[in-house]
Design goal:
- 44% of the residues lie in helices and 17% in strands.
- By secondary structure, it is an alpha/beta fold.
- It has two domains: 152 residues, Glycogen Phosphorylase B (Rossmann fold); 135 residues, Rossmann fold (3-Layer(aba) Sandwich).
- A six-stranded parallel sheet has the order 2-1-3-4-5-6, sandwiched between helices.
- The longest helix has 18 residues.
- It is elongated, with a radius of gyration of 22 Å.
Length: 312
């Protein structure tokens, strides 16, 4: 198959290039069409590319790109305009407020990272039967070495929790601090690596300072990823969805706990404190989740299968 991937400057990062290399290694060909131009200019650029190559599918990531791909079919020669349009939203883009009916009708397949994203777009009119879920992969980051060995925990030393990534969801961070404060019998060290808006963070910091049982370390952006992960027992999810940091933590055997529900997080940490072996079991489960769901081989294989099925 010959696939075109329309990329804005914010999309064409190392992660996307790694994905393209992996797809090309399967015997298929995926080509990046880089542009930040208006829709009409993208249409002309894509139409020009179509006259040189017969694409089976065109991947778009925004409404503007989708409209351009639809228009290019009209501009290009009819014999070479039968490609399928595949819409794959990216996390770096905000969810659109609406989707043009033409885009909904002309898009052959929608690919979402998780069920929550799928539901967001379903509310905007996307037909669920024309969509699929493709979990993200560690192509999203090259920061974390896979050679990191999870830190040992015996119950006699502090349980090291790590928040690693930009602070954008303050509810999650607040819930994490609240859960920790509900464990006075434990000794916990919570390192927060990442920055956010001071007016939202300071109330959480004041709440943490009122806790005399545990240690809170606020590092901002002054930290080393490898060093932090080498000492971490548990990662606290910094996003309400699976992020690159979470995936690479699972790859290394470091469990990732969500802070969406304070009580659930508290109970999970209580189990580890009461039985340190539970941390080892959680780490093995994290590795298995990476192998079964988030590894690059699974991602690429599933992506190619989805495109192939759509272009039949």
């Amino acid at each position: 198959m010959l696939i075109a991937d329309i990329l804005a400057p914010t999309h064409n990062d190392k992660a996307r290039k790694d994905l393209h290399a992996a797809v090309n290694a399967t015997g298929n060909t995926i080509t990046a069409i880089e542009t930040s131009a208006p829709s009409f200019a993208i249409s002309m650029q894509l139409a020009g590319a179509l006259k040189k190559n017969r694409y089976d599918a065109v991947i778009v990531h925004t409404n503007r790109q989708a409209i351009a791909a639809i228009s290019a079919k009209i501009i290009a020669e009819k014999s070479n305009s039968g490609y399928a349009i595949i819409y794959q939203p990216m996390r770096c883009e905000n969810t659109p407020r609406n989707i043009p009916s033409e885009v909904i009708d002309k898009t052959a397949l929608w690919i979402f990272e998780d069920a929550a994203m799928q539901q967001q777009y379903t509310r905007l009119g996307v037909h669920p039967q024309k969509s699929a879920i493709l979990p993200p992969t560690s192509f999203d980051t090259g920061q974390t070495p896979s050679t990191i060995t999870p830190a040992e925990y015996d119950g006699n030393t502090p349980l090291n929790l790590l928040w690693l990534g930009e602070i954008t969801d303050y509810t999650l961070l607040r819930n994490a601090v609240d859960a920790i404060r509900q464990l006075p019998e434990a000794t916990i060290r919570f390192s927060v690596c990442g920055t956010g808006k001071a007016r939202h963070i300071m109330p959480i910091v004041r709440n943490a300072r009122a806790d005399n049982h545990h240690t809170y370390i606020w590092k901002g952006n002054e930290y080393d990823v490898e060093q932090e992960l080498a000492h971490a027992h548990v990662i606290i999810a910094e996003r309400p969805y699976v992020s690159a940091v979470q995936i690479d933590s699972m790859r290394s055997g470091i469990p990732v706990y969500e802070a969406i529900d304070t009580s659930e997080l508290r109970d999970s940490l209580t189990l580890i404190v009461a039985n340190p072996e539970a941390l080892h079991a959680a780490g093995e489960a994290a590795r298995q989740a990476y192998q079964d769901t988030y590894n690059p081989l699974f991602h690429v294989k599933h992506l190619v299968e989805l495109i192939a099925e759509t272009t039949k």
